[in-house]
Amino acid sequence: VMTQSPATLSVSPGETVTLSCRASQSVSSNLVWYQQKPGQAPRVLIYGASTRAIGIPARFSGSGSGTEFTLTISSLQSEDFALYHCQQNNNWPWTFGQGTKVEI
Amino acid sequence: QIHLQQSGPGLVKPSQTLSLTCAIFGDSVSTNDIAWDWIRQSPSRGLEWLGRTNLASKSKWYYDYAVSVKGRMTINPDTSKNHFSLQLKSVTPDDAAMYYCARASGGRYGYWGQGTLVTVSS
Hints:
By secondary structure, chain A is an all-beta fold. Chain A has strands spanning 2-5, 8-10, 17-23, 31-36, 43-47, 51-52, 60-65, 68-73, 83-88, 95-96, 100-103. By secondary structure, chain B is mostly beta strands.
């Protein structure tokens, strides 16, 4: 089971935010972060816990291993207000967290 | 460029069967080391993996389904049309959600369909 916290983060543009994802058992570094905007499908931000996907700005960074993971967004831009999901691919079936909404 | 295009009705009556299709462009449903999944999203459950198919070996397809839908759900790959489909039988209001098809590779879903909002209502 993947647990994300908090459910909602209210922040201002320019701030730095940290999103948490916790696994009920170790998933090693097999952790993916997605961003989802209203009316769109999720897109990959980070995989392998810390590797940015192609085209993802450097202000997005991921860290962690085992059961504790974080996604940090530095200097939030207006386009970063969205829903963020984590997903583990270490244990079958792959599972997602419930998501964290980053709102203004 | 890989693109997934979903089709199928968004309104299904209770107890009936939900049928959705995911057409694949820029890739093949038979590509080795690629899996094709169905995922749904609802406010209460978040993103929920439903099922997978992939070509495991010569002409042998692998299938797996979430416990929550096992026995009700079938995924069918169609190599002639290069698509894969979902059938979910005996739907209830609990099955109402946004349904996505997605391409799985390298442990992640790099490509998604546009989503189909499914309502279960008579």
